[in-house]
Each structure stands twice: as C-alpha cells, then as structure tokens.
User: What shape does this take?
Amino acid sequence: MDQTLTLLARKYRDELRPRQGLLRGREFLMKDLYTFDMTNEAALATYDTVRQAYNLFFDDLKIPYVVAAADSGSIGGDLSHEYHALSEHGEDTVICCRKCGYAINEELDSAKEHSRCPKCSDTSMKAAKAIELGHTFHLSTRYSKPLGLAIAPQPSESSSTISAQVQKIPLQMGCHGIGISRMIAAVAAIYADRKGLNWPRRMAPFEVAIVPGKRHMLETPLVSEALNGRSRLEPLVDVAIDDRDKEFGWKLNDADLIGYPIIVIMGRKWAKMRTCEVQCRRLEVKEDVHIDELGARVRELLNKL
Assistant: This one.
C-alpha cells in the first residue's frame, strides 16, 4: 500500500504584513509530498528516506543550512524537522550546537542559548537567525483516523480469504514541503553583494556567461566549443552568450547583476593571445586563461560551486 503523492502548486494566505519580497508574501510556490504507509515502522522508514533526499537536495545547492528539531504545532504528529538557511535576514531563530551540529527551533521551551546540548551534552549551543526553507512531518494517524482512511491488512500466506470481520488499519501519514519561491529569495539574500545576485550553480539561469567585446562577437562559438570540449563524454556546460548590441562595460555590469556563477570575458588579450579573463565572484577568482585550458579550468571552478 505504501504510496507517495507529490503536489507542486501556488498557494495563497491572508498575510497581514507582507514583507521582504518573496520571503513572506500572500502568494508563493510550494512543493508538497504526502506519504501513506501501512505500519508505523514503515512510515518512519519513509520519513527517514525523505529527510535523506532533502539533505542531498540542499547539499547539492551548497547553501549554509541546518536541520532543526521542531514542534509539529497545529499540523499535528509527533515528529518533525525544519530545514533552515542561516541568514541575518531570517525571522526564525535556531539554537545550534557548535560541537555536534544538533539544532532546535528556539520556539521549543528547551531551546536556550548556552544551554546543554541534548545530543552530546556540550554547552556550546549558540543562537542564529535563519530562514525556513522546508519542513517534514510524521503525522501518524492524526488525519487518517478522523477521515476514516483505513485499509484491510493483507491476508497471510496460510489464509486465502479475508474475513468480513477483519478490522481495517488506519494508514500512517506524513507530509513534507519545500518553499520553492522562498528558497529562491533566501539564496538571493544570502549570496547577493554590492554588484548583484550570485546564484549557486544548480539555481543559476546559466552556468557560464560569455561576454565578448564588439570586435570579437563572431568568434564566440570558438569559446563556447572550448568550454564544452572536443569530447562529448562530459556533461555540457550551460552557456549564455551576450551578443546584445550594448557597450562592453554595460554588459559586464549586467552579467554581475544577473549573478552568473562564472563569467568568461573576451577582451583585449583575445585577439593576440587567444586568452580570456575568467571571473568567479563566489570563489574570488579573476584570472587569464588560454583557450586550450579554458574548458578544464571552468569545470574545475564549477565543481566547487
């Protein structure tokens, strides 16, 4: 019977004080997952599987986050965890152990800064501002019992029929969600600097932007091919070429504003030396790279983002 249902939809709420752009608005995009299991043991195993998937997802984005034990609140259930991006723009406060990494939402009565960690007993618990990005709930039978959502147990191998008197079992439920629009706003808030946005590789509109001088516009395919290599065995680099009829400096500023992870500039050294300038603000890289080494160097940087 074990089933999972995914819902990706816009949601609306009567937010009294909309603020901070997409972080707290009346309309937002949400990814929800609902799980249904026959037994509590199976439901807990499913819960752990979802948590592992969420950890892999946030790890892949390479954003600073913590998983905090949380109160299920009005949603109910007896087990829940919150996924928070650490940011001074956050409205939540999480208490984190600097020794073992355990975290808990400050809303729980036991969560106090400098208190003893319930996991490792260290006293290095510290408060940090955070933005909630996701939440997982083990609901047990909180909703299945009132709704009469139950199923007859499967017959044993020794029994070929099910008695009409067999009592149905209420399903074990779980619900899990990630705020997609909030996550975009949170990442923008964490990584933006005075020049503009600064997207992680997995969220960027393109991985690399090629910005050519006007005299080099027709040679951009050479650089694009160098980025993707002569061999097609490696995954392609997602490249944007800025071929707009704008001033060179304007296009460089616009590339910073958009927040491409890596910018490849075809400037003065391109015509004579076939050398591009490679910039990566996140890694504080600004260096000249020959076209023969361009693909390898850019991939090396992308693997760190």
Notes: Residues 40-61 form the longest helix (22 residues). Helices lie at 40-61, 144-147, 180-191, 220-228, 248-258, 268-273, 291-302. DSSP finds seven helices and 15 strands in the chain. The first strand starts at residue 3 and ends at 12.
